[in-house]
Amino acid sequence: MNTEIDRKWWKESVVYQIYPRSFYDSNGDGTGDLRGIIEKIDYIASLGVDVIWLNPVYQSPNDDNGYDISDYKAIMDEFGTMDDWEELLQQVHWAGMKLIMDLVVNHTSDEHDWFVNARSSRDSEYRDYYIWRDGVNGNPPNDWLAHFSGSAWEWDEKTEQYFLHLFTRRQPDLNWENPDVREEVYKMMRWWLDKGIDGFRIDTINMFSKVPGLPPVDAADGKLRWGGEYFMNGPRIHEFIHEMNEKAIDGRDVMTVGECPDVTLDMAVDYIGPERKELNMLFQFEHMGVDHLSKDRWDTRPLDLVKFKDIIAKWQKDLHGRGWNSNYLMNHDQPRSVSRFGDDGKYRVESAKMLLTFLMTLEGTTYIYQGEEIGMINSGLEKIEDYRDVEVLNHYREAVEAGEDLGKVLEGYMKMSRDNSRTPMQWSKAENAGFTSGNPWIKPGISWREINVEADLASSDSIIRYFRKLTAMRKAHLVLIYGEFEHLLPADEQLFVYKRILDNSTYLVLLNFSADSRELSIIPENSELLISNYEGGSAGKLRAWESRVYKLS
Ligand code: ISL
Ligand code: CA
Predict the structure, then answer these.
(1) Ligand 1 residue neighbourhood (C-beta within 6 Å)
(2) 503 Cβ contact list (under 8 Å, min separation 6)
(3) Integer Cα distance of 490 and 551 in angstroms
């Protein structure tokens, strides 16, 4: 008897994430734009991906590269016009793909009309769209630390109150307790959906509901502290998301994926369990923490592979039948996956292919970030002048003030900063990686002359061609999408080995996460090798960063 599988297009999709500012510049002003994406649609479609996720393209003063939105219904001037966007949507659809938009509604820009109005007077009809409080003895209302340094509260001179901002001071938090705010958001979502988009990636969705009273973490010593427990997964969060689903999403054949830092597996089921009618999927961050000692982005340690495997296996097994995974190794907030989980030197090509094999053989929807298909490595920006990310710039200012060892600080940025993934997509060995004919808004990463789309396609060892095989393979073998995950050799410190099982079909995935070769004894004789990142067999041995997928039965 065959297991009933609940097939959905978004479960079978590979999502390709585009950071428009850095993808392709069509008019030589140094900034990527919508027409640039339109020019590259054939390339994207050729990869065999199904959905494009666009990072924010709305009007924004760009304090946080578009995550500070001043008009939800307008396109950022640098990126083009609404007509360009309409054309992009149409062309994506013509190419047989879908388009999802980034929805950023935990906060707006301080230049959004609502906020401009809200801060004009305590009596403004928009005052309650945001979160205002009096100070406490001349200090901010509580000790919460903002994500990108400093207090999460900003003093407003004119109306003499503080407003809350979990991110930069130019990203005031919306007050989700206010039903008018929620209605505005749902109305705006419907407006975009009516244009024919295929869903949303929803930014920081688990931060909408704050604990009433906004309690301090520890009022005693006046230090700033991480207040996550008071603004993540707050008391009304499920009510809000359920309502959002009901009022904007339900009844439409679209997908939603919510970004949820600090969500545990137990919590995840409440967000994505199908019967909950909240979200289809979420991005969890547990595996992004395995090379960290604390919540601090710069506080790193070597990758612990056993722990990494453990986390992945847990999400694979425990969500099976209860929710749907989102599998990713990087995005615009993370360093390059090859530099972080693979080998960005000698075995760059092998390890890039191995990591893609990993992403494409897990249960769940696969998310690939621009450049991952050519094994782009970290940017290698050595000077603070070369950085653009507000997170880095704020942190650096504090590090200077605190008299920290700036050499060390910069090393940290080279390893972990978000600009590692934000330098231009590397198209060719032409000046500026073929990204722009002008002056790029951020320098290309140091590797562009060797690592680029043109060079990759010219190579007999092409990662792109390997990735195309992976996308085709995944479509041809539903087991790779829906099959149950069985973890083998969990304590092995080099190999990640697992089976995928659906009814009578069993597949075996062998991944070498190291440069050392290893003898193998687990491959049955009559198995069929579906794909490997090495040419030519070596049956009894897994070579450096080798990956293989077998069909056992
Ligand atoms: O990157 C992170 C963990 O490594 C997160 O803490 C991240 O900052 C957080 O998940 C929120 O990210 C999102 O919202 C931010 C924006 O700067 C990010 O680019 C976006 O992905 C504020 O809108
Ligand atoms: Ca441009």
Answers:
(1) 64, 67, 104, 147, 167, 203-204, 259, 261, 285, 288, 297, 332-333
(2) 1, 2, 3
(3) 21
Phi, psi of 244 (to 5 degrees): -60, -45
**Placement of tokens 């425990």 in the chain:** 318
Residues 6+ apart with CB under 8 A from 115: 108, 109, 126, 129, 130, 172
Asked if residues 421 and 369 have their Cβ atoms less than 8 Å apart, the reply is yes
Give the tens place of pLDDT for each residue, 148-170: 989 999 999 999 999 999 999 99
Which amino acid would we find at residue 532? S
pLDDT of residue 87: 98
120 CA to centre of ligand 1 in angstroms: 29
**How far apart are the CA of 436 and the centre of ligand 2, in A?**
8
| Closest CA to ligand 1's atom 18 | 333
Proximal ligand: closest to the CA of 283: 1
- Of the pLDDT bands very low, low, confident and very high (cuts 50, 70, 90), residue 2 is low
Whether residue 1 has pLDDT greater than 60 = no
Domain residue spans in the chain? 14-106+181-469, 113-164, 484-551
DSSP letter assigned to residue 300: B
Report pLDDT for 230.
98
- Cβ atoms within 10 Å, residue 458: 9
- Which listed ligand is nearest to 20 at the C-alpha? 2
Report, as residue numbers or ranges, the catalytic residues. 203, 259
Report the number of secondary-structure helices (H) and strands (E) in the chain: 17, 20
pLDDT single digits (tens) 341-370: 999 999 999 999 999 999 999 999 999 999
pLDDT surpassing 80 at residue 179: yes
For a pLDDT cut of 90, what percent of the chain falls above it? 95
* Overall CATH class of domain 484-551: mainly beta
Q: Which of 19, 55, 333 to mutate to test the pocket of ligand 1 (most atoms within 8 A of CB)?
A: 333
Lookup: tokens for 1: 């008897």
CA distance 27 to 35: 8
The CA distance from 12 to 495, in Å, is 26
Tell which CATH classification among 3.30.1360.120, 1.10.1240.10, 3.40.50.880, 3.90.400.10 matches the domain 113-164.
3.90.400.10
Question: H-helix or E-strand containing 199?
Answer: strand 199-202
Identify the helix (H) or strand (E) that includes residue 120.
none
Which CATH number applies to 14-106+181-469?
3.20.20.80
Q: Whose CA is nearest to atom 10 of ligand 1?
A: 261
- Residue 24 CA to ligand 2 centre (angstroms): 8
Residue-wise pLDDT tens digits, 492-509? 999 999 999 999 999 999
